[in-house]
User: Which sequence fits this backbone?
């Protein structure tokens, strides 16, 4: 594995979004991974509709919360194609699901893997490099006050409550860390990103990690 | 300056303003505690941001809504060394 790896440098990570006052992190996490894998496979980087997932993924609860794995399972089972964000814009409110014909263009999930990498974060690094950005869930209680730097304390594992997108890692410094894209806008953290120490499953980042296949 | 920076519209002296001020004071106490663990240059820093006038309950109810789904342990090849 390379000592550091960052999918942003390959221009396959879309800009940081802001979920606003809506518990839609689970949808941003899944759509972020799909956008990146689509670009890694050679397509133009394009923002896909988070609102479509929010409105239509019946296993989840829209702005009242949801699970990235349930959303991925729904995408795989139904074969629903996500349309561009421009065609189904984000409203930060759960709405009525808009359907599109099968002939309408879009991006579909063919499969996904989900694993618990606790104690095996090096293997998780391998998955990131091999598969693309990963969806994960974390304990983000202390993130209410986060300004920047590498989180090493105040974060439990197995009490996950927030979904994020892991886009890279860096092991070249004194403290190896994950590079994580959040969905709370660019004014939060390191221009919308948070760094989490690698090793010790800090914030539970390795508890439930998914990679998507399109 | 917090109200100006984060475009808060509640009026000084209103009930909401008093409540937000209380949450803000609670946040500054949390920051002192959180920052006390490590002062190394790369360590995380905690302080005033756009969430500082929310109670912890409000923050949880608005932003921490992901449901946990258990995933099987990774059993692929080890990458030791």
Assistant:
């Amino acid at each position: 594995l390379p000592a550091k790896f960052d999918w942003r440098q390959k221009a396959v990570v879309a800009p940081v979004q802001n979920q606003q006052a809506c518990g839609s992190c689970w949808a941003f996490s899944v759509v972020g991974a799909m956008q990146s894998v689509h670009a890694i496979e050679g397509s133009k980087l394009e923002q896909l509709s988070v609102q479509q997932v929010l409105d239509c993924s019946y296993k989840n609860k829209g702005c009242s919360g949801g699970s990235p794995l349930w959303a991925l399972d729904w995408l795989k089972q139904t074969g629903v194609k996500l349309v561009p964000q421009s065609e189904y814009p984000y409203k930060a409110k759960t709405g009525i699901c808009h359907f599109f014909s099968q002939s309408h263009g879009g991006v579909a999930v063919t499969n996904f893997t989900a694993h618990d990498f606790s104690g095996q974060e090096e293997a998780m690094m391998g998955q990131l490099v091999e598969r693309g950005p990963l969806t994960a869930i974390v304990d983000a209680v202390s993130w209410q006050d986060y300004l920047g730097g590498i989180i090493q304390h105040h974060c439990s594992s197995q009490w996950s409550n927030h979904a994020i997108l892991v886009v890279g890692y860096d092991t070249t410094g004194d403290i190896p860390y994950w590079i994580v894209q959040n969905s709370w806008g660019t004014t939060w953290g390191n221009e919308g990103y948070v760094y989490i120490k690698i090793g010790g499953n800090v914030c539970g980042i390795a508890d439930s990690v998914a990679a998507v296949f399109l | 300056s917090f109200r100006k920076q984060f475009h808060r519209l509640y009026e000084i002296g209103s009930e909401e303003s008093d409540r937000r001020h209380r949450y803000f004071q609670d946040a500054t106490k949390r920051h002192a505690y959180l920052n006390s663990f490590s002062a190394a240059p790369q360590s995380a820093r905690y302080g005033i941001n756009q969430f500082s006038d929310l109670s912890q309950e409000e923050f949880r109810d608005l932003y921490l809504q992901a449901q946990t789904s258990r995933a099987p342990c990774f059993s692929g090849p080890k990458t030791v060394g």
Helices of chain A lie at 25-40, 50-56, 68-78, 121-131.
